[in-house]
């Protein structure tokens, strides 16, 4: 999870707020969030002031708005050039902003992998309670409740400051009490939920880890409030630096674990846990300059009667339920994963719960990388425009903007999925296979990666649809769909986790995240009429054709290169060369083909990136 630096002109700052409420909706992404950050990592939400309708739009009203314009075939309606340029510019800015933090996050996981499954397994198991609790209490409220509310006080700096630090102090008190309370319930929670399938020594390490990491909430909670305050004031740069500090702290902890002797006060194995504390403190330190820029100095205040507090609670209530439900599914997934049996390649091990759970987390990181660069960037970029079009009643521009987002998402996510599947072995070997991370663990990770990768194109569509419902001020339907789609996970995971093992859990997650956008799409179509999806077919067929050629080229080059010792994936150099040559040539061929086939969006993407880099 990364925070982005974006230009102020990408935000819709001219919208006027009327009386009413604005509600946010939850995100559903593949895998779990391992960064200790909110879902903003996978769906960035803009601090846009939104006008709220007095009542949800009815089906009849929606149908009335979508009446065909005489002489204009509905299938040929497309986004105006200005809309396309704005979307491309915003999306490319967010993607470039995400890239640095995502690379650092990838490096972080590589260092964790070096410590081996006996440490990385307990670490991944222990970090989830703090993350889920932080999401539930405060982090999940950032996009839908805190930012819109803080925006209302943008012109009254002292009142905004009073509100912000009331929340900071309130969250700090809640997190302090919760951290002490969790210290006492942690043994039961660890043995029952977090690591029931681990060896005794690994369960004990998980217990120690989770007790230490839970105290990171003393910094994580207030950071979420301060981050929302900066977003509301359009101060984005420092939040991006602060997010990187979290990764850096864990990297320092991993290095400490790898190089320090066991005789160093017995603290060697606790390096990762203390690294989380270091990273969260670093976040607070690095966000201070941004707060100073906005003249938001700390103050001790606890105004529990502030009228904004009730509004924040009202805005966040539906999202809180979704986070609670998602946390239950995540803990169920973790509970099952730590007890999954060994697959054939790991038969020599007595227990594979730690290795299986680690493999799922490493694979999740690789899925989140294109998800953050593409899905998050697009959902962030379309939200202001979609909100404006709904406010103005311009349903056709709403649809055309959504379709443009679909085309851009598929343009990048379909080849990303195929690339990860075809080159999974050299990619995993390059990033993780060193130190105590064995070749067998690498195979486990590639199996998880392949089963997760199928959901990538659907993740892009899902995030755009979530933004569409957000713009329509609708939270009930997405939350209900979240519950329904989770049944897909349960239908696959529960019957097969003891026989098929870890792959069944991963495939169950993929089924869940494929169902979510499909159901949302059907509901949106029933609500506002035809989305003109036939307009996607020409571009989609070209993308699929170019991706097929790309996949064959990547597979062929990997096969040929693998016959030479220099390119063996058992070595770091061989993995690097294979990924660079096979991946680079295949990607070049893909973009050359889509340009040759005149897929319009790729030219727009090229122009936006060159403009941002100062080359155009």
TrEMBL record:
Topological type in the membrane: Multi-pass membrane protein
Lineage per the UniProt record: Bacteria, Bacillati, Chloroflexota, Ktedonobacteria, Ktedonobacterales
Keyword annotations from UniProtKB, A to Z: Cell membrane, Cell shape, Membrane, Peptidoglycan synthesis, Transmembrane, Transmembrane helix
One GO biological process term: lipid translocation
Entry's transmembrane regions: 163-185, 205-226, 238-260, 272-291, 312-332, 365-387, 408-432, 452-470, 477-498, 504-525, 537-560, 572-597
Top-level taxon of the source organism: Bacteria
Biased composition (Acidic residues): 1-12
Cell compartments where the protein resides: Cell membrane
Pfam families listed in its UniProt record: MurJ (PF03023)
InterPro entries recorded: Lipid_II_flippase_MurJ/MviN, MurJ
Predominant cellular place of this UniProt entry's protein: membrane
The name this protein goes by in its record: Putative lipid II flippase MurJ
Organism of derivation: Dictyobacter alpinus
Stretches for region Disordered: 1-82
Gene Ontology CC annotation, any one: plasma membrane
GO molecular function: lipid-linked peptidoglycan transporter activity
């Amino acid at each position: 999870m990364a925070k982005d630096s974006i230009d102020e002109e990408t935000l819709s700052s001219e919208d006027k707020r009327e009386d009413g409420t604005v509600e946010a909706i939850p995100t559903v992404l593949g895998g779990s969030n391992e960064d200790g950050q909110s879902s903003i990592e996978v769906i960035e939400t803009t601090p846009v002031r939104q006008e709220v309708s007095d009542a949800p739009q009815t089906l009849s009203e929606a149908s009335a708005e979508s009446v065909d314009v005489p002489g204009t075939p509905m299938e040929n309606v497309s986004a105006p050039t200005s809309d396309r340029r704005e979307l491309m510019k915003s999306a490319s800015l967010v993607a470039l902003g995400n890239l640095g933090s995502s690379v650092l996050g990838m490096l972080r996981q590589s260092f964790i992998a070096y410590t081996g499954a006996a440490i990385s397994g307990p670490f991944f198991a222990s970090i989830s309670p703090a993350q889920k609790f932080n999401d539930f209490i405060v982090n999940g409220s950032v996009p839908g409740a805190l930012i819109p509310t803080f925006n209302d006080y943008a012109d009254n700096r002292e009142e905004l400051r009073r509100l912000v630090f009331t929340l900071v102090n309130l969250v700090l008190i809640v997190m302090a009490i919760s951290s002490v309370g969790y210290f006492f319930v942690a043994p039961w929670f660890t043995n029952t939920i977090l690591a029931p399938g681990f060896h005794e020594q690994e369960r004990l390490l998980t217990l120690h880890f989770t007790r230490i990491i839970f105290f990171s909430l003393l910094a994580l909670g207030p950071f979420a409030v301060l981050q929302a305050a900066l977003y509301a004031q359009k101060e984005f740069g420092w939040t991006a630096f602060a997010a990187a500090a979290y990764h850096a702290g864990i990297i320092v902890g991993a290095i400490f674990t790898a190089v320090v002797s066991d005789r160093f006060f017995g603290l060697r194995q606790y390096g990762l846990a203390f690294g989380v504390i270091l990273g969260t403190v670093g976040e607070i330190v690095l966000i201070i300059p941004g707060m100073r820029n906005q003249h938001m100095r700390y103050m001790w205040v606890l105004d529990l009667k502030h009228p904004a507090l009730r509004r924040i609670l009202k805005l966040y209530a539906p999202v809180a339920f979704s986070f609670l439900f998602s946390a239950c599914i995540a803990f169920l997934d973790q509970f099952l994963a730590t007890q999954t049996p060994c697959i054939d390649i790991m038969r020599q091990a007595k227990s594979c719960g730690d290795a299986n759970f680690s493999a799922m987390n490493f694979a999740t990181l690789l899925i989140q990388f294109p998800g953050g660069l593409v899905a998050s960037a697009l959902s962030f970029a379309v939200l202001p425009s979609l909100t404006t079009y709904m406010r103005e009643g311009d349903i056709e521009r709403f649809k055309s903007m959504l379709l443009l987002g679909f085309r851009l998402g598929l343009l990048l996510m379909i080849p990303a999925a195929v690339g990860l599947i075809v080159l999974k072995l050299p990619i995993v070997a390059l990033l993780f296979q060193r130190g105590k991370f064995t070749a067998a663990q690498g195979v486990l990770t590639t199996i998880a990666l392949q089963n997760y990768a199928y959901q990538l194109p659907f993740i892009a569509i899902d995030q755009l649809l979530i933004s569409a419902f957000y713009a329509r001020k609708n939270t009930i339907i997405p939350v209900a769909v979240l519950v329904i789609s989770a049944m897909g996970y349960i239908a696959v995971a529960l019957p097969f986790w003891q026989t098929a093992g870890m792959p069944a859990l991963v495939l169950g997650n993929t089924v869940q995240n494929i169902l979510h956008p499909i159901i949302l799409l059907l509901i949106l179509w029933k609500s506002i009429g035809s989305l003109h999806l036939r307009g996607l077919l020409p571009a989609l067929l070209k993308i699929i054709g170019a991706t097929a050629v790309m996949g064959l080229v990547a597979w062929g080059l990997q096969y040929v290169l693998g016959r030479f010792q220099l390119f063996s994936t058992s070595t770091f150099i061989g993995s690097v060369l294979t990924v660079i040559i096979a991946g680079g040539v295949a990607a070049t061929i893909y973009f050359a083909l889509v340009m040759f086939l005149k897929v319009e969006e790729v030219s727009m993407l090229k122009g936006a990136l060159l403009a941002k880099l100062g080359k155009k």
